[in-house]
Amino acid sequence: MTIAGTARKPIPRRSPLLVQLGGLYGIWLREVKRAIRDRGQLVGGISRPILWVLILGIGLNPYFRGEVYGEVTFVVPFTYLQFIFPAVVALNIMYTSVQSAVSVIWDREFGFLREVLVSPMSRGTILLGKVLGGATVAVVHGSLVLILARFADVSLTPMEVLKALGLMAMLAFALTSLGVVIANRIKSFAGFGVFSNAVILPLYFTSSSIFPLDPALTGAQTRVVYPEWLVILVKYNPLTYAIDALRGVLINYNQFDPRIGILVMLAAGVVLFAIALYDFRRV
Amino acid sequence: MTTSEPAIRVDALSKRYGRTLALDEVGFAVQEREMFALLGPNGAGKTTLLHILCTILRPDSGAAFIGGSDVVREPLAARRRLGIVFQEPSLDDRLTVHENLDLHGLVFGVPRKIRRQRIEEMLDLVELTGWADKPARTLSSGMKRRLEIARALIHDSEIMLLDEPTVGLDAQTRERIWSYLERLRREREITVMVTTHYIEEVEGCDRVCIIDHGKILALDTPEALKREHGRQVLRLVLRNESDRQEILTRFAGRLAGETGAAAEAPILLNSDDAFVDALLAEYGNRLRSMAIDAPSLETVFLSLTGRELRDQAAGARERTLAFGRRGGEHTR
Amino acid sequence: MLTRGQLTRDFSGLAVVVGLLLLVTFLPPDTSLSEVEAKGAIRACVPTAYPPLVTGDPDRPGIDIELLRAVAGELGVRLVIATNDAIGRDFNPRHWNVTRGVCEVLAGGVVNSQLTRSFLDMGPAYAQTGWAIVAPEPLDDIEGHTLGALTLISGLDRIGLASYLRRRNVTVRVVRSGEDLAAGIAGGSLDGGVTEALLAAGLAAEKDWWTAPLPAELARYDLVFGLWKGDLTLKRKIVAAFAKLEADGRLAAILERYGVEPSGVVPAL
Question: Which one has a higher pLDDT value, A75 or B79?
Fold first, then answer.
């Protein structure tokens, strides 16, 4: 057995910033690789858009299509398929973001976290790498839905796609941070189903995602058609504004000022990441 | 590192978890290029000590230094010198062997060229070159351990800390891991500190520190320990209960450890050849079995703690692995 | 170090997913096209007359009628025209009684506006329109004049026009048809007329009058065919037919025959 070359040689020092950046890349790359190798996650990434857009969208489309010119229950400039399309993009991002964040528990439980905690990486770098990695995967999953644009009759210019990707990135970052915040508070290892049922779906269903609550066009109608409590739930759900901003870009329809959505996502991203970091420093 | 400064120095280190004192004023020094073993049963405080040394746990009082760097005040400087193998596996199962090593190199700031070279060297060292592109989950637990050792060396660590590196492995694999450690120390001139509760493994170490209930009981070379604390121990199982009670009372001063209440539990007695002869002459026909343990670290431990250090292997690692098998990755 | 095998393995899953989703987009989302094909005919609701889009003249039937014929030819089905007197007569399209049961396409002056989009889906744009003024002599300023307003076309901004005219102190007389407008102007009871740009251009060409678009504050719109919302398969087919008509020059030829500048087909997909 040859043993030449195993003698220790000192490693040249690099600038601390470069080291942190390299580590950030490493942790980000790990998240992306893990996600790409997780076939289960990919199955979710494809089955959700297909079920929501194809089955729900097509199934309900006849109920929303025009029958008599000048006569529709709600005067809205889109078909049902077009309406839920941006929401399905958001749904796919939600699932993937929270899923990535939940792996924080796994990392903690299985010691991988310890391996990076004893490295020269700062806690902030570790968390940022993790959140960025999760957000990247989530944006990819959101983009998978965009493939169905033609099917949903949503026309997209390259500029619109870029804008949508920007919004999706903001949303994914905020949601991944949210997932980490929740994961940090969960001491025992609960299944992902808990997250899905307690966080994702309630947020999603009350975000004006599958039916429009439209203060601009049908302000009076809203209160006539829907009970007050539902209107309030939707209004106070931050995701409502994120989906609205996305809708503005994808189908040119806004219920609110699209800047509210951007503001909400940026603020949520910063605040949630700060909370996650605060928790993480105490690990 | 100045030559006068030891590789690891621990001064009056204490750590308390609630009411239990995990470490009680522990102090010692490990010299450069030394192979140092921390021996003790589960819960003795070994892992706590190790976690303080690798900067992820803060001591309540006292100080610890890695190559002269205070682990509390200069954790980054300490971490750069350390190569750590934790008791629980900390590999990423979905990454390949190579990717696991590469990730480690990245987070430790090893430049790309050196990283590539080190990975090759280290894979060669632990004989995993052929597995470089296999996902880590396909490795056997022994191979995973070897990979973790290789990983701890990617950033040219000077001091290796290994927490129970051989627990849960078969004898052959354990031997192999020790041979790597021995070779590493020789060729790469590194300091190795290992915790273990397998007594037979520490015979080859330079010095052994026996620790129990957070206190150091003895610290010396294996030979010196055996000379000083090692005794010949006699294990007796008697045919009937009255004889058993008679021996227990008659030789109470020679009892070498706690004796179980069951009639079948062996009585452990400190002995020498003359005592064995005398005992055989008197009780020879009333014995069911008798065994003589020559002075060994096992008997050293027995005489220091009054307990035997056997069959306590169901450690955290096994529990973790079982958890993984049971639950799988519950993220979806 | 990423080996090629590793990369292939990593991305094969993603590629399968993308491929599956792409395949899904080829599934027909509704039955509109298959219904038209089963009947062998496509039905279009048009107003009785809306020159130059619909004239009622068998030799020069109008831009929309010719386009509809060409599109029906591309689809391989007959064209059935359902003329509807009410279109344009009545402000409220609900009273036109245009339903899914009567026709698949609504043509003859449908513009792409927020109002239209609220009720209908639409095919590609083939020309532009807006409000225009027509008069025997050029009017430097419409301030204080009496103008006839003919608002046959659906979807243009009537409210915007009304408030614009009110601001300019124009006396507005609402007229019912192109003939009424022409007669009013020719008879001198009206100084001029305000109507949809193509109609104005047709009138001006016919009577050798002057015409000009109203200022930019009143938006210009694309002329389109109205389709029922949710009839995605039919819409795709019509968009494809338009693309073909534009590529082989037939679209430009039809527009030219009626003296209309082509705006270039804006693909709606």
Answer: B79
Contacts B–C by Cβ distance under 8 A: 7
Q: How far apart are CA B85 and CA B74, in angstroms?
A: 21
In a domain, A68, yes or no: no
By CB neighbour count within 10 A (0-12 exposed, 13-18 middle, 19+ buried), where does B327 fall?
Answer: exposed
Please list the ranges in chain B whose pLDDT falls under 70: 1-4, 260-261, 263, 309-332
| CB-based contact C249:C162 (threshold 8 Å) | no
Does a structural domain hold residue A13? no
Query: CB C1 to CB B102 under 8 A?
Result: yes
Q: What is the pLDDT of residue C216?
A: 61
pTM of the predicted model, to two decimals?
A: 0.79
Q: Which of A19, A99, A112 sits opposite B109 (nearest CB)?
A: A19
For residue A248 the two structure tokens come to 């503005």
Beta bridge pairs of residue B69: B66
**Any alpha helices (H) in C139-177, and if so which ranges?**
158-167
ipTM, 2 dp: 0.82
Beta bridge partners of B38: B195, B209
**Which residues are bridge partners to C43 per DSSP?**
C80
- The DSSP symbol for B203 reads G
C120 touching chain A per CB within 8 A = yes
Q: What range defines the domain where residue A137 resides?
A: 20-61+75-280
Strand-pair partners of B269:
B234, B255
Q: Would you say residue A12 lies in a domain?
A: no
**Could you give all domains of chain C from N- to C-terminal order, each with its CATH number?**
32-129+221-257 (3.40.190.10), 131-213 (3.40.190.10)
Strand partners, C125: C266
**Minimal C-alpha gap between B99 and chain C (Å):** 8
List of chain B residues whose C-beta atoms are within 8 Å of the C-beta of residue A102: 331
Q: How many domains does chain A have?
A: 1
**How is residue C180 annotated by DSSP?**
H
R_g of chain C, CA atoms, integer Å: 22
Q: Buried b vs exposed e over A185-214: b needs ≥16 C-beta within 10 Å?
A: eeeebeebeebbeebbeebbbbbbbbbbbb
User: Which residues 293-312 of chain B have a CB within 8 Å of chain A?
Assistant: none
Binding partners of B (≥3 Cβ pairs within 8 A): A, C
Q: Which residues contact A244 (CB under 8 A, 6 or more apart)?
A: A208, A254, A255, A256, A258, A260, A261
Within a domain: A69: no
Contact call for C94 and A71, based on CB within 8 A: yes
